[in-house]
Amino acid sequence: MPLEQSTKNMIQSNEQPASESELTIDQWQSQEYKYGFTTDIESETFPPGLDEDVIHKISAIKNEPDWLLQWRLKAYRHWLTMTEPKWHNIHYTPIDYQKISYYSAPKSDKDRPKSLDEVDPILLETYEKLGIPLQERAILAGVAVDAVFDSVSVATTFKAKLAEVGVIFCPFSEAVTEHPELVKKYLGSVVPYSDNFFATLNSAVFTDGSFVYIPKGVKCPMELSTYFRINAASTGQFERTLIIADAGSEVSYLEGCTAPMRDEHQLHAAVVELVAFDDARIKYSTVQNWYPGDKDGKGGIFNFVTKRGKCAGRSSHISWTQVETGSAITWKYPSCILLGDNSVGEFYSVALTNNHQQADTGTKMIHIGKNTRSTVISKGISAGFGQNTYRGLIKINKGAENARNYTQCDSMLIGDKCGAHTFPYIEVKNSTAQMEHEASTSKIGEDQMFYCNQRGINTEDAVSMIVNGFCKKVFRQLPMEFAVEAQKLLEVSLEGSVG
Amino acid sequence: MIELMQEQDTYSAVFARMETETLDGGPEALLSLRKDAMQHFEELGFPTTKDEQWLYTNVSAIAKTTFCPATRPDVAVDAATLERESFAGCGFHRLVFVNGFFASELSDTTELDDKVTVISLTDALKQQPDTVMAHLAQYADYKTHAFAALNTAFMEDGAFIHVPKGVVVDKPIQLLFITVPNNETSNEPIVVHPRVLIITGESSQVTVLESYVGLGEQVYFTNAVTEIALGENAVIDHYKVQRESTKAYHIATMQLNQQRASNGASHVTSLGGDIVRNNINVVLDGEGCNCNLSGLYIPRGKQHVDNHLLVDHAKAHCDSREFFKGILDDDAHAVFTGKIIVRKDAQKTDGKQTNRNLLLSDSARVDTNPQLEIFANDVKCTHGATIGQLDDDALFYLKTRGIETEAARSLLIYAFASEILDEIKIEAVREQVNNILLDRLPQGDRFRGFKGLQ
């Protein structure tokens, strides 16, 4: 009898932690997507399908000049000859590109509002729900928000203030009509229309996006930000962003995203191009929190993004910071082409995959100029069934004398069903180059947890503390309010993840 | 594409001819294995740089060359060469192969323990066909690897080593592969497909050294496959010193399968060859295994050296270590790919990958991909890669101590390499590689016999 009892106790004590951890993981997994709601606005939407007619129609709606239409068509014809890439470490059911609608705009587009008062109140309500009360934020935070709502920019603020110093910050379609010489010169100069499958598709069908031009010697007086949001069902969002920083200028651009709950996969194939001239600095920060799908991996956004910056001038500086917590699939490699001598490229990333999320993300640093430097800090966190891949290329060309690179990519695994993968590619063709690559994979240490627990910090807080510490190097790079948001996001995503 | 078909067709034609003439000697199962492998090769074709596994190594030079199968050469290997290459006086057990054919008159296994089998593969297929066929081609995957398939289809001869349970082989077993021109007058490119099968029983211990030597400067192609089945708690130290002719192509696949608590070590030194590829695949198929892979490559001229490692942690509680160093001069190109896969249940894995490269010339090139694929959560995996040049401060320090630039450079290069040389546990082999390195360094003679670094 005593033996039986003790065996029973043993079984119980064995089971205890397991069931407890299951419970907490369950709790965590069952957390509903915080920003899941749909705004009921009638949209002007194209029927699904893609052919040259659709491109003609998009171009006509946008009142685009002929050269842009021709550029789109060139991209489309090239796209037809391409096949979807297969090298990535992500799995999804093939996308039927004929089942996607390539244009959707809010009805209120025709009479474009001149001020916030004229903006559709339902739209404003959407932003309220998202936590971006436009006026408040604009006044209190001093941030110019060019909010993109389903492919058409609805409101732009602080334009006058920016115009004072000569900064152009406007929707892409407006830039095409108002500043065609700039758009024509730089569109496709960093990501050519033939670059890759998704970028080429974007070049053919992109609907809107943001355009920024900072003139010579101007330090942008405020941080620029755009909120992207996908709304109408089954419409892919094809954004195009172009930022040009002329000699000696400086700009910090923030991009943050949330999207309503969907059952169907939605495709997002954006292109971001940055150009920095002599001594210019561009800082591009992203917090991506799109709908990741439910806990069974159903739904969620497919995020196939091409982001690239060109350090064209001497001592130019481009810095990418990203916090990727959303999307069913994240496929993006924000890159820097370090063309000018002494130019600097940076990449700071936190990628979190939970449930059935998959991320294949990293960077490319192409060193061409002399004394070019790059830093890559990547932190990957996998939980649930999440698969997290770092894929990076460091290429040091023959002429890149004294190029330096430092890469650190760390992964953290939470739970035993997730995966962390690292695929660094390092190509060095110059003997004066110095490059270091370090990577590690670990879990939250038992002794770390024990230490926190015995100091009276409960497990959840301890996990959050440790994870935030793990990501600190990246968060430090974010602008203040984004850093707070990012930290919060991770905390919410990780609640109850360790039993 | 059409061209590629033709390249394979050459091999197909040779295979068809051989099938009727020479290959019908062995067991029936062997013939069907060859046919199967040939079929897979025909489907796979030679890899191109579009293939992720061959991204940085272009083998079109191999695919385009028409090689004729090696024949038993009439050119004799002289005694001095044999003495030099076989570490005379060290008492190694040895099998010698000339152009892939077993040369019994040059071999010496007289001192060997009776329980240990060290014979040529051809003899093994006659004496114990069942044992051989139970293991042959069971480890090296010819279904997805074109060169392994090619070797499996064409293997002429090779070595068979069987160490039974509990036996410790006292001295290293050397497998010496010498390639000479088919005959004195001809200089036509030849291809050799050496095959090595090593089976070790529980708690056995053995040291194996594979030496590849090219005599003369002709173009030839060595396509080697080594399979090692390591028993429970067994220990193997495997060394390869590759000194092919500088015009030779050397593609080698080593497949090491480890059972519970076994201890496997492999060390590869790449000195010769025009295009060199070492595929080293390890499967840790039992708990508590230890695997230690290391290597040194010193390419110069237009040499291309590619080390391609894959360590598969299939079971829990295994440790693996990859440690490769390269010194590149002139227009040399080196590639390192190290991949550690940690399977779902392989908890408590400890994996480490290190690749360090020293670039001595502006036109040398290094591509390195240390990769991790991890599906378990309780693991410790790290990888690191560095590419750089000699440290200016260290050079300056030596110069302030009165050592001239050239000697100081040589000393620093030697110091960089010595860490890897220390991994070679057979003294005679370490001495051999050490001397070759010193021969290559300007004023290297000054450090000969300099033990201070070791």
By helix and strand content of chain B, what is the structural category? alpha/beta
Distance between the termini of chain B: 52 Å
Instruction: Quote the beta fraction of chain A.
Output: 25-35%
Number of helices of chain A: 12
The largest sheet of chain A is: 10 strands, mixed
Mean pLDDT of chain A: 77
Low-pLDDT ranges of chain A: 1-26, 107-114, 135-145, 147-156, 227-235
Low-confidence stretches of chain B: 1-5
Q: Kindly state the percentage of residues in helix of chain A.
A: 25-40%
Explain what you see.
The complex is a heterodimer of chains A (about 500) and B (about 450). With about 500 residues, chain A is of the alpha/beta class. Among the domains of chain A are: about 290 residues, no CATH class; about 55 residues, no CATH class. In chain A, strand 3 and strand 4 form a beta hairpin. Chain A starts with a helix and ends in a 5-residue tail after the last helix. By secondary structure, chain B is of the alpha/beta class. Chain B folds into two domains: about 280 residues, no CATH class; about 60 residues, no CATH class. Chain B is built from ten helices and 21 strands. In chain B, the strands form two sheets. In chain B, strands 1, 4, 5, 7, 8, 10, 12, 14, 16, 18 and 20 form an eleven-stranded mixed beta sheet that branches. In chain B, helix 2 packs antiparallel against helix 7 and helix 5 packs across helix 6. The N terminus of chain B is likely disordered. Chains A and B meet through strand 22, strand 23 and strand 24 of A and strand 20 and strand 21 of B.
